[in-house]
Amino acid sequence: MRDDRHEGAADRAALLAILRTSPPGRATSGAVHAKDSRGPTGRGRFLAVMAGMVALLFACALGGLMVGSVSIPAGTALSIVLNWLSGGWLMSADWREAHEIIIV
Q1: Which helix (H) or strand (E) holds 101?
Q2: Residue 63: inside a domain, yes or no?
Q3: Which of 12, 35, 38, 79 lies at a CB distance of 3.0 to 4.6 Å from 42, suitable for a disulfide?
Q4: What's the domain count of the chain?
C-alpha cells in the first residue's frame, strides 16, 4: 500500500510540473512581456467592431420605426426620437402628431 501512495505522489508531482510549464511560444511567468499580443491594435479593432455594431443596431432600429402601415421618413423618425429623448426642449415639433404617437 505504501508503494501505491509513493507512485501516486510521483505522478501528481510530474503532472503538476507539466501544468506549471508555459505553453510553447509563450514567455515564462517570470519574464517581462515586451508587448501584449493583442496590444492596442487588438483593442482598437475591438472598439471599431463594437462601434460598427452599435451603428448597425441604430440603423436597424430607425429602419424598424419607419416600416409599417404608415410611412414615416427617416428624418422625421429621427427628429421625433431625439425630441422625445431630450424631453421636448431640443426642437419644435414640425411633424404630425400621429407620427409622434406611432414612434413613441
Answers
A1: helix 97-103
A2: yes
A3: 38
A4: 1
Q: How far apart are CA 44 and CA 51, in angstroms?
A: 10
Average pLDDT over residues 55-82: 84
- Cell 501516486 found at: 8
Beta-carbon contacts of residue 37 (< 8 Å; ≥ 6 apart): none
Residue-wise pLDDT tens digits, 12-66: 888 878 888 877 765 555 555 455 555 567 888 899 999 999 999 988 887 887 7
- Residue pair 79/95 in contact (Cβ under 8 Å)? The answer is yes
pLDDT (0 to 100) of residue 22: 72
C-alpha cell at 65: 420605426
How many angstroms separate the CA atoms of 32 and 98, rounded?
64
The continuous run of DSSP H or E covering 56 comes out as helix 39-66
Domain enclosing residue 62, as ranges: 54-104
Q: How far is CA 33 from each of CA 12, 25, 38, rounded to the nearest angstrom? A: 30, 12, 12
